[in-house]
Amino acid sequence: QITLKESGPTLVKPTQTLTLTCTFSGFSLSTTAVAVGWIRQPPGKALEWLALIYWDDDKRYNPSLKSRLTITKDTSKNQVVLTMTNMDPVDSATYYCAHSGAVDGYTFDVWGQGTMVTVSS
Amino acid sequence: DIVMTQSPDSLAVSLGERATINCQSSQSVLYSSNNKNYLAWYQQKPGQPPKLLIYWASTRASGVPDRFYGSGSGTDFTLTISSLQAEDVAVYYCQQYCITRTFGQGTKVEI
User: Strands, E, within chain B: which ranges?
Assistant: First the structure.
């Protein structure tokens, strides 16, 4: 059974850097054809894809946010970390991590419950 | 980047009736090398993470009832709920997954 759980601060100040950790079980990011992605959702708004990291350390970023994002993996800890710099109140959202696999072409087939992040001074 | 546009933004359907949601991409998501459309549909109920319903534009994910039907190719896609049930009240999102990923703005389905 695949599970994912997001963790990190619930409140960050404007201009600060946000660091979120996705801890997962039921699969390994050292296994071929596996990936983990991050997606966010401001309250009452649509989903926005942020980043994706593959088993081979290939990375993809949302072009509009690429300069602010870094995604890394620690296969020994079964974790994926997302950092977002220069946080702004508009970045307040629920942040999700999700499993992605080659069977379906790397959609997001299993999601974590999400973690709410508020950006405020 | 590929822009996904859904219509309508919301719709109300009677129980047992058909619900139809449209999704248009700004460029084709059909890969000629494998003839697959990189288009997925998700369902999100209040307070829950999204749930994958459909991938490859028309393949139901495991455990998804067969009243959910995906169709389309290239740039125009449709999610149909053939007979709406009370538990289908949710927001539905389409997503392209060519190289990057983009979601549509969502369609709210109500009774």
Answer: 4-7, 10-12, 19-25, 30-31, 36-37, 39-44, 51-55, 59-60, 68-73, 76-81, 90-96, 102-103, 107-110
